[in-house]
Known about the structure:
By secondary structure, this protein is of the alpha+beta class. It has 7 helices and 15 strands. 23% of the residues are buried.
Amino acid sequence: MTEFEKGLEIITKRCGNDRDNIISLATIHSEKNGKSIPAVRDVDAYYENGSFYIVTYAKSNKMLEIKENPNVAFSVNSRNISGKAVGTNLGWVLDPKNAELRTKLRRVFSKWYDEANNEADINFCYLEIKITYAVAVTGHGPTTKKYHLDFLEKKIIDEVKELKKREAYYFKFNGLDAIEQGRTFIFKFLKENRIDLEKSLEPVYIFGSYDILKKDTEELEYTLYLVISDKVKLVDEPLKTHVFGANYVRRFCLYKDILEESLSFYNDLKKEKSHNQDSIITEQYLLSKNNFTKSTQVLLLLESSKII
Length: 308
């Protein structure tokens, strides 16, 4: 069984088998001034073969927003599964082409289907949420494992390995507040180059790197790396460099805990002597929008002499 098949099996076990899943479905609405407004709601969803199916109303906000922009995001409540997808209106629930799907959804949603839906109304429709990318998480703490699934290519995405093949734009900041300078600059750069992480179809990878032993000293240097598709046209093109040429130990944490976790990460690995005595911490900021929140996830990386 491949790693992709293992990840897919996790999603099927947690979401399939005629389960009435509650998923959070996020959409985007563009106002007349060009500002993008996100919206999210919980919906009942049936999972089968890489898609979620929802019974809904064609004139609802989510359907109007999906018609405008079919790219959506989702999270399966309490299942540690989330991702990106494309939404498609499959049409009226009584359309003959939907007969097989209707039978399944009436069975899975039998407790409330008739009470919530007036099938005689042609605006009642089925919505397909076809997954393009998903993350399935197993374990907790040190046993955590994330399966990054590319549904289009039917493969696992190892972001660090993928990034080893690429070049990154980089910026350097120095002094006591170097880290704060660099993290603040991220959003200045995104704004200047009109990169909206909520709407971007091209992935943007953002990293910060510094010597944990020089933190809180004037010698501190923080390097910001941004890996951006060549399709994105920048106002001014910064210098480029190759990144990630070694093996790395990884640990996930929340942005609010990043200072404590970085030092703890280094000390834990130093005790185990499983790395090259390197004190350079690299942080990948897993941003879904153009700002940090306390719950923003961060992937910590530390070079290792072992293949992890």
